[in-house]
């Protein structure tokens, strides 16, 4: 029988409305989704994307002509079409993974993910073979999004690696480059990678046609933090008069992961007191706890 895909994440049901505080960054990702969903429309009609006019059916040709017209009014979309990879850059916990899942969720395509630290093995060739399987699975189950977390773990500039392990990493990186290049019907598999060190990536990775689209996701500002709190509050019994802005004001420097945690801790607080609703006070207390945790983490890391 058919092998079960190893890197497929099932039941990814994230939508753009689950990702808050990103402003126009979300719009950029929405374009990618548009491309995906349009691509699917062609595929169903037996038309490959892009540049395969010759192979299309008459019906397909009609659609392509339409698309040429649409695309010429949307220069951004052309850019997306030309890219096989999107790089999401930013500090940990700002929602890079969440955003990649939302792209797959909105487009209704399969989501394959791997952490690049899993690529880096002691034995030469193991990482490379994982990259190959990953892309083979993604292709067999296309359309799909491939998400590579911590790309810098494997994509570090080759000269920067000292000592043993360098050879294995080179082999893995080379395979990744080959996989990124190797798509005929590119539109069917899009790679999204995340990193908090775009500056140390191997130049070969960010060349046109590879990860040539870089999107920076900064830590959220005051309003962004408020919106993130509100998104996570949707699934909780919140008091009607909760002052989200006040809580946002007390969480300067925090990222989405920490803000999501504040809601969880506040909910526990409510339960412990045997109350039915989460109050502003619960949130402020939770924010204080989270802040202490944040400072601890800062002290421990150099
Ligand atoms: P890392 O680099 O550490 O993997 P990341 O940037 O990929 O971090 P996520 O894993 O996407 O961050 O975020 C962790 C969790 O924090 C998410 O599952 C979500 O619950 C919450 N979160 C983070 N950012 C946001 C956001 N912008 N809106 C809503 N929730 C968020």
From TrEMBL:
This is AAA+ ATPase domain-containing protein. The lineage of its organism: Eukaryota, Viridiplantae, Streptophyta, Embryophyta, Tracheophyta. It comes from Acer yangbiense. Residues 82-221 form the AAA+ ATPase domain. It comes from the Eukaryota.
